[in-house]
Amino acid sequence: YDVVRPSLVHRVALAASSCSLSSSPLVQKLEDRLMVLRRFTCPEGEYNPLATIIFNQPENAIRDLFHQSEYFGFDTLVIFAPLIFILAVVTYGIAVPSGHYIPFLLVGAAFGRLAGELLRKSFPSLRTVHLGNFAFIGAAATLGGITRMTISITVILMECTGEVTYGLPIMMVILTARWVANHFTPGIYDIHVHLKNLPFLEEDHEGVNRQLLVRDVMSSPPVTLHDVESVERLEGILRDTQHNAFPVVNGSGGFLGTILRSKLCVLLKERCFSEDGTHDLVPSEVFRRPYPRMPVIAEIKLDDKDRTLRMDLRPYINPAPYTVTEDMSLRRAFVLFRSMGLRHLCVVPERPQVTGILARKDLLYEHRAHAGARSSGNADP
User: Fold this and answer.
1) Entry pTM
2) In Å, how far are 77, 88, 186 from 82, measured between CA atoms?
């Protein structure tokens, strides 16, 4: 944003340059900063309003639009507002960490102040109204309509002004902007979620068909690993799939648990394989050390001899992952994904064997303490 803006607007500012006399110094000491009036191509003692608002820092330009009333007129704002809007939209869509809070606050402040100037020209009786209020309302409405955030933006803008009395008007403006924006398009974060094809589950689960079961949408047959797996097959599965976790089964096909893709990559990188699959147990610190940049299969070098060896996965599996039966309602599975933040669920047969019942009271401290003491007693020789 700060890199692209000056180069693009130089010619616009030059073509639209109009100098104004300054009754005060071009560099003015305000309460907590310096306000610099840019001369650009103007003679000594004069300043260019468009160059002043364009070439100053965006944060300072926002403050000037909020507080200063005599420096930026209608001609300046009618050029600056559309220009800065186009730049903010273009730079937000490229791979530059430009952000959008400050640019769109500036866009809203410019359009809000422009609306105030139009009202002044249309209704001369409103000439006593401070244009900074219009800029402030425009900044709140623009940011609220783009991000669809309400309370957080209200708090941010109240902290910027230090006026608690602005709380209710700001909230009303942001809510109105959000309602209007929701009528036309999703929020900017929702748009990016869909553009990146992220599997984000909406909060509303009422749209899930009540008649659908888990078996109707599950992927079958799943890609499974054996408890003692060959390195060659492990490498092939990791290269051919993008799954985050894999079910692990024994020789008879019994479900043992799941193992994460990141763990498999760490085990391969640490060369935890042998002819019979046995190896020294890898401590948990080894799995946590590379976080958040976990190794990927493309970075792991294996030769032909390594591919003939085997790896014992049993010490590293999660033996008790979340599971559901294949005849479970899809709506209940949806709620489980939303409430627990799951990425996957293993589906088991319809009629597994029942070994017990866990009730709410069993989770109380007294029951847990009694169960712990009983378990310790059983462990004694």
Assistant:
1) 0.64
2) 9, 10, 22
